[in-house]
Fold 16S rRNA (Guanine1207-N2)-methyltransferase.
Amino acid sequence: MSSHNPDRLSHAIQAGLALPPGGRVALVAPLLDAPLPPVDPARLAIVQPLKPDHDIWRDRGMNVATALDGSYAATIVTLPRARDLAQDRIARAEAATPGGLVVVDGAKTDGIEAMVKALRARLADALHGPVSKAHGKVVWFEAAGALADWILPEMSPNAEGDMTAPGIFSADGADPGSRALAEALPARLPDRVADLGAGWGWLSREILSRGVTELHLVEADLRALDCARANVDDPRARFHWADATAWQPDAPLEAVVMNPPFHAGRKGDPDIGKAFIAAAARMLGPRGQLWLVANQHLPYEPALTAAFRDVSETGGDTKFKILHAARPHSDRRGRSTPGTG
């Protein structure tokens, strides 16, 4: 999703979009810099399953939920890039807004033009707009049940039999980076381990097969974590809905294994992986170890050297590198706010 919101909604209101004068208004996954619609903030309900954004909205004093809950007078959907997730969110918005207004706000880079065509094919003249501004569009319609077949199961098995959800990372199967990391892990891992950015749990199962006694799955996307709960049926697993860069165990860990994200929307952002590395160092004990996989071009070695005494590349191929680090520097270890998920 685009990280900058040019306030297309206000432009659409000036062009004829009329929000209802009463009732709850849901904002589904709004951007953090999105201006709020011109209604009483007490009427607004933010729907956000991503933990960092969820907590930011909460700290701003907004009503926040992880999913649509009950009925609304209007629902405003910020279009996600994944087409299946986009259709599902719009259809769920329609179902939660009977007889009310559904608004879709999206950037061209996130597929709004194709979505407008798909909505026009279903709704014909009942679709209003589009109002275009700043490389995006806003459309709206009255909810009448026309999109019910767009609603997808909250989770369903992929071709490999694992439960995944629309729009989560690598939903069709284990991604090649995680497979490469699993192949490079030792046959026996230390006892207490965390999988940072655990996703829907494929790599976590591989970690559990290597003799650990306790594994913490830390994942910011609640939908992915719910899938992990279904895919990782093991009493040694602990599940935490948390920002991996802020989560801290109750006691230092012996190892961290991770395939950190490196995109913010469509843009590559190596700082995300660097933040994961710093977080891993904080949560490990003096002899703790880190295994991670990264694309070859990502410059993680300086961050690893700054945080750990021992750093080496232990495997990889033309696309991926497997990095191992051990013994975090004492000034990098420490406790932040404990999170038990």
Summary: The domain at 156-328 is CATH 3.40.50.150 (Rossmann fold). The chain is about 25% helix and 30% strand. The first strand starts at residue 25 and ends at 28. Confidence is low (pLDDT under 50) at residues 335-341.
